[in-house]
Every structure is written in structure tokens, then in C-alpha cells.
Amino acid sequence: MTPTLETKYVFTITARIGDVITAGETGIGVRRIIPIIGGEVTGTVIGKVMPFGADFQTIRPNELIDLEAKYAFETDDGAIVYVENKGMRFGPVELLQKLKHGEPVDPKLIYFRTVPKFETGHEMYRWLMQHIFVASAARHADRVVIDVHQVM
Fold this sequence. Notes:
5% helix; UPF0311; 10 strands; UPF0311 protein JWS04_12090; mainly beta
């Protein structure tokens, strides 16, 4: 019998974001780039999101949004952790349009899930590279809040 899948909450990444840059319709959807300009990490890991990186999005014709963010954070004890976070955001078109214009939307009404991967050379945080993580996220006008859960 295979082990049962369970998850446990480990930390939250709050990534502050800059103005959206749109490359336009590329043939597979609208390409958007959202700069990551800072933020914080709270929970089991504590630190600051570094002021570089971006979320590279493709908005499909059905409004399903493919996301791929690349950035890093520095822990309060000096470890640098590189993050690649891939996922999707989807919901009713009228709510996605509100989000696109910076209007508030109840996060429970939008499916926003990701699979973050971490890399670091710091021994104390190697466990981040030895597990699979899933996340539930919420988009706000000036930030994205990502609750990271470890798959046990």
C-alpha cells in the first residue's frame, strides 16, 4: 500500500508586485510580465523577498492564466533561496477582469494554485529541496500572498 498524501502549512510568501508589462497577443495567449519588487516570508521560514524577479504569465483565450514566477528570498539568518513557482489562476471571467484592473475580489472565488520549487546551498534550508510543495495563492492589487504547504 502506498503512503497517504498529506500536506502541512510551512510558510507564507508575500510578494509585492510592480506595474504589469504586456507583450501582447503571442498566438498562444496574452503574455504579461509582472515585476516582483520585494516582500516578506513568514512562518517556519522568515525572511525578505528580494527586489528582483518576475511572474511571467500567459492568459489563454478562455482566461485561464498560466503562471511562472522566478525570484529569490533571503532568510533572516542570511540564506539565499531561489524560487521557481509554476501554477494557474482561473475563475469567472468577470472576476478575473476585476483582478486585472486592480479591483478587490474574494480569493475564495478564484482557483489560484502553484507548485513552488526551491534551491539553496545553505545547509539549514536543504530540506526545501528534498520535498514537494504546493501552494494556495491570492492576488491583490499590489501583492500576491502565497501559502506554501509541504507534501508529507
